[in-house]
Write a structure and sequence with these properties.
CATH superfamily: DsrEFH-like
Oligomer: single chain
Keywords: Signal
Structural class: alpha/beta
Shape: globular
Radius of gyration: 15 Å
Protein name: Intracellular sulfur oxidation protein, DsrE/DsrF family
Strand content: 15-25%
Strand order of the largest sheet: 4-3-2-1-5
Order of helices and strands: HEHEHEHEHE
Organism: Pricia antarctica
Number of helices: 5
InterPro entries: DsrEFH-like
CATH topology: Hypothetical Protein Ychn, Chain: A
Length: 140
């Protein structure tokens, strides 16, 4: 099952990486990625993908951000669920981002968000802003 999920994400990233959208400011020296997810357990295959891309791309590997939005956002305050993900994300150069709009909507205490995570006001808007900068994007 893990292999299937990892392969699917990797295939999607590969397919979307060839799309050249107009009005983007591409940094051709580095490959930057953003993934929007609604479920904390999806961090497992996403981080596996980031690790594989970092190894494969070497110096061409740039920034990799994962934005967590939606009803499952409360799971990020669970240290037991997030501990390993945070360590692996840091090692792989992955920035974990929490959607402030989702935190507010689902009444999640922002002070309980792990300090290693960045909080943005609107995760969907932030995703679009990164896409404008040339990030390759995937939503799960």
């Amino acid at each position: 099952m893990k292999t299937y999920i990892f392969s699917s994400i990797f295939l999607m990233l590969t397919l979307f990486s060839t799309a050249n959208l107009q009005a983007q400011q591409m940094d051709n020296d580095k490959n930057n990625y953003v993934v929007l997810t609604k479920k904390v357990p999806q961090l497992q295959p996403i981080i596996l993908t980031a690790e594989a891309l970092k190894t494969e791309e070497g110096d061409a590997y740039g920034d990799f951000q994962v934005i967590i939005c939606g009803q499952g956002i409360g799971d990020i305050t669970n240290a037991e669920k997030m501990g390993d993900f945070i360590k692996r994300a840091e090692k792989a150069g992955v920035q974990l981002v929490a959607c402030g709009f989702s935190l507010d909507k689902f009444k999640v205490n922002k002070t309980r968000v792990p300090k290693e995570m960045k909080i943005v006001e609107n995760g969907i808007l932030y995703n679009f802003q990164l896409q404008k900068k040339g990030y390759r994007s995937l939503s799960l």
